[in-house]
Records
---
Amino acid sequence: MTRKHRRLILVLACGAGLGSAVALTLSAFRDSVAFFVSPSEIAAKAPPAGRSFRLGGLVEAGSLHRTMDGARPAATFEVTDGHATVSVHYIGILPDLFREGQGVVALGTIAPDGSFRANEVLAKHDEAYMPKEVADALKKSGHWNPAAGPPPPAATWNDMTVTGAKQAKAGG
Amino acid sequence: MIPELGHFTLALGVAFGFAQAFLPLWGAARGDARLMQAAPALALGQFLALGTSFFCLAWSSAVSDFSVLNVAENSNSLEPLIYKITGSWGNHEGSILFWCLILSLCGAAVAAFGGNLPSSLRARVIGVLGAAGVGFALFALLESDPFLRLWPPPVDGRDLNPLLQDPGLAMHPPILYTGYVGFAVPFAFAVAALLEGRIDAAWGRWVRPWTLAAWCFLTGGIALGSWWAYYELGWGGFWFWDPVENASLLPWLTGTALLHSALVVEKREALKVWTVLLAICTFSLSLSGTFLVRSGILNSVHAFANDPARGVFILVLLGLVVGGSLLLFGLRAPVLAASGIFAPVSREGALVLNNILLCSIAAVVLTGTTYPLFADLLLGEKLSVGAPFFNATVFPLAMPLFAAMAVGPMLSWKRADLGAALMKLWWAALVAAVAGVVMATRAALLPALAFAAAAWLILGALADLIERVRLFRIPLGASARRLMGLSRGSLGTTIAHAGLGVTIAGIAAMSLAHAAIVLLHPGETAKLGGYDWQLVNVHDADGPNYAARVATIRISRDGRLVTVLAPERRSFPVQQITTTEAKISTNGLRDLYAVLGEERDGGAVLRLHVNPLAPWIWFGALIMAVGGMVSLADRRLRVGAPARRAAVAAA
């Protein structure tokens, strides 16, 4: 076997390694990347049922109900970005820092009835924290101009627009 | 007074750093022996200065000097002393100072133990270490000064994040940072070799022990972090593919590859250019892992501070160190002549395969970790890449690696007989296949394959050992003598490979775990995994700086009491944070794991887990680190005492 031969084998082996890495990455990206979606985006165009994604927004004040799903503890609450709300159903223990009126990110799928089934609910271990995606969604929906200071307290959000959004939804 | 001394010595450390970065490199370039000789003293000076500085910070924290902003924000007078001290590296400013301290320790270690290096190489290595670290020390001094004073001082501090008030996490950062920063030494050797334009087997012999030491610490640090996540975060999992976890895994993957390719440089003088590139990449990944996460650019639950000014400073530093070294590599790599020929089927060939696969895995993990960042910047899309992606990409690439791992050490250098090596492993292969088939009936395909891989690795390591001591083919006494006479290097390899097998068995067994979330009233019993979990009561208990609710759970099996677990929910009034303290009972073969959730309607929500083989995950990592240390003992003997090696060879 000549030196050229050996180099060829080496290059082929590297190519095979990298090639399979690229192929695996691309195929996995197709089905396992979770997009971040805000409540207004769901209201505008609901993602296909069964596709897993991340829903972010503020937990509407007074919307949390702790229930039981068979023998398992469950919770339902509304997530809002000011324009629209989505009802979230979650079976399990809510994180310690889950509070009404604070930012939350939930991972799950949309059910046929239009509500969101969360497999995972994330709230960061920090009182003042607003998840980055939630902050961006709030900015996008025009409710918060970052230049004007910190985001307004969640309570005002709910009063201002959510009722309007709900009425619009009921009317439409 | 003490904080000012700390501030002054930090500034002194920066001054030493600049001197260490310029004088030895300049001296080596000009061939000036006096400037080159200054290198060890400068490195020791920098270490002493930064050591004093960090000691002052820890002291301020230990005596609760709340006139120091950093102490006031991260400490509290009621906190136990140990967490006051460990809290000094548990925050952004303190951790950066600590990082610089460890890097200066590396420089001091090269100065202290590098007496037998050629003086120009030693001067260059120390100089490059100084250059890599001085920017970050300057950053600590200018942008994240841990000694800022606060006036008027608050009555009490804001307390350390309760999640960090834990003995496991107290030791996690020092070990992990030593691992991260330890890769600076192979990096400095690589850059020094590019400057010198020469690499030989002696270079490989020098680089490998440093790589090995850093690798041991990084392995231990990652395992400790994962163990902490398992018992402290109370989610029942051990690895979440969070950016900060991936950031520590990436240098581990390329560092493992570097460990193996440095072996080829040392023994066969091949793969030199590739090894230099790997050393540069490993330290670059360590650096970017530490600082990208800390700067808040990657969205992670672990990020300390999200200050854009800090982010830009760190990005510029990263660009200088990573970009500069890669540029140097591009310019100088062609100077390093390739040599050493080997057949595809040989020990070298197996190590090349190891490198290809490890680097492919690293590339996949890097892509998954940074993709959300690029998708946001370039496409304006918000998305997250989670565990499903990593599971689907990493494991298919890891399987051939595991398959080759048992065979590789049995191949001889230069040209090997694959058939003969496989013949020695037939019984390991048989047991692995049986294990895989048996598990396939109880678990999914991937865990079954992982079980087979675990059996293959552990038994393969055993087969290798049996082969080396010629067990049962020569008298037992002779075998024992051969075992004692085995080189520590190959013994370390065997131990570390078996350790990985133990870890994989633990990870695979997680697929057989049982978990349930139940609402129990006192006196009620839940059944899970063959155990009866009875909630006895929920009561109050107070700690030094928190109030707790404690659930008492009696766990029995077939009427016999197994253990009593008392998971807690702790409320920390100062930070207004509630944490869950999971309680775990282990017997080495399975963990019983209980978490107390919220209380409602007079009952308590409990999350219960039965995790078979879970402790093996960290036990295996410990075995790997021990294997690394055994191998390290060998290196020290050979590097330090060449005469003794000659004597052994003669005998």
Note: Residues 37 and 55 of chain A are 5 Å apart (CA to CA).
---
Amino acid sequence: MENNIIIELKNISVSFDGEKILDSIDLYIRDKEFVTLLGPSGCGKTTTLRIIGGFLQPEGGEVIFDGKKINGVPAYKRQVNTIFQRYALFPHLNVFDNVAFGLKVRKVPKNVIADKVAEMLELVNLKGFDKRKVSSLSGGQQQRVAIARALAIDPKVLLLDEPLAALDLKLRKDMQNELKNIQQKLGITFIYVTHDQEEALSMSDTIVVMDSGKIQQIGSPTDVYNEPKNAFVADFIGESNILDGVMLRDKFVRFAGADFVCVDSGYSTNENVDVVIRPEDVDVVSPEKAMLRGDVTNVTFKGVYYEIIVDIKGFKWMIQTTRFYEVGQTIGLSIEPNAIHIMKKSEYSGKFGDYSSFSEEYDTLDVNTEEEEDTETQKIDDETEEGLSVE
Amino acid sequence: MNKRTHSAPRRRGLSFLLDAPYVLWSALFIVIPLVIVVFYSFTDAEDNFTFENISAISNYGTTIRISIEYSVIATLITLVISYPFAYFMTKTSANAQRTQMLLVMLPMWMNLLIRTYAWMNILEKNGIINRFIMLLGGDPLKLLGTPAAVIFGMVYNYLPYMILPIYTVMSKLDPSLLDAASDLGSNAFQRILRVIFPLSVPGVVSGVAMVFVPSISTFYISQKLGSGKILLIGDTVERFIKTSYNYNMGAALSLLLMVIILVCMFVMNRFSSDDEEIVV
């Protein structure tokens, strides 16, 4: 059962206006698996989803569903349903009719429809909302209606296109749990598209990291976090200090002007590599006992920890520590062998993992997103109020 | 919410000043003329109150019947042409849509009278159509002066007023709704029936109103293309006022026209807001 492959993409390519959106994608998805396509906007993740959903025909390659090629099969004949980014609820129908839409199209008897809709609304905690107009619902509630509507026709695979992007943080976390629970309860395959690495890590069985139309890495959340394949993956998922290094011999690497014991092997002698060190894996020690020494250039309080930027021979490291260090203070760093991850050089080498540009620029970006979220806050308020009144 | 209630009293003085020109305008050009129409309808030539004009309306049964008939037929034909036209228009590229929109609007840049005169020339006994038929050896057709010509004139002149609102509503339709409908198993026909049509009803309603109202009250199209043989309510009103100087009877028929239009609008509005009425 575990290895029952439900969807397979073979050598899928798509281009738009001469620009390659997907470049020879190969991917298989197992039945009952929670797969996340993760990547920045424009990486091709939504395009991949639309190909599986049948809204887009690939220029080359095969889409295989349950062992059969379905390239030419239109969306309405596929046993795959989609949760759209902006929910795409029918504004002229109430909650009941939205959820019943797929069943009515299939000419299911009325009493069966009523039972199924009731069951679905209960599943998404919207019992008693049947007659409500969809425009009167909060973002979270609309999201639930969209889920109920897609699940009402018993799809084998559910495609979710950034379904939580429009919700605020708190609601997003709740919905993440809820979606995961629904997926496990119904035992169907979820293919989830997001650009939020945290969301991907906490929900998925398998993460497919994509960038510029190519799959960068496929693996479990722990795999992609602990063993990123290249600088892009290391940087996109979590924070990373990525340095140029030289593999002196097996389990021995030189970077930042010092030699370190590591756990990786299988590289040729003196091979140039990328070295990844996660900010939380660095220990701050007194400068005398340290492997590396540097000056603190920036300190940000993050609640649980301080995020400090340390300048070591011109390279800015990000380090997370629970103790406070002042700007200008010289500190020492110590790195355990298993905190060092070695990657082969790739096209992404040198592009990521240096925090020297980590400054006001990022702060202004943050301000903007917060303002956007403010408008959403009202929606949660509504959500919680309505939630209470129903219970 | 709080902000709005706070600032309302302060703004009242200013908003009164800003509203004044419009209130004055409405009073001068809408309310007062309406009152005059009502006054004339219920008085005789000596300004004495009477129901005679109103009861005389029953003499114009045929006129009223064909007015309603022709304008309803014209509205339906316009709708049947416009709906698919607007639908397929939204399926074309943005540039093609702009061009088509321009072509739809183009005739409207010309005066209605001139366009109607042009059609008289095309349809008349020695007009282009008949000359062409005769060239092919056929007998000339009687085109001008028929109900068909009048209805054609209405359809031709008011077609843009139907296409525009339907097109506007359809082009604003969120394409992801159609994706969602296919996703849930509807084929092209079911998508039109279950999503596109219900969501385009507001456009249809305003299109119908914008075609029906000028059609039922027209007098020019019927006079020119009907060769004076087809009298609609509008023609009758014109005759009373211009030829027999019977303002009272003209006003009574105008009032009737207004009532017909108001009833139609009321029915149409009920139809379009049906959904909300049930839910709320």
Note: Chain A touches chain B at residues 53-55, 74-77, 80-82, 84-86, 88-92, 94, 101-102, 104-106, 131-133, 149-150, 153 (CB under 8 Å).
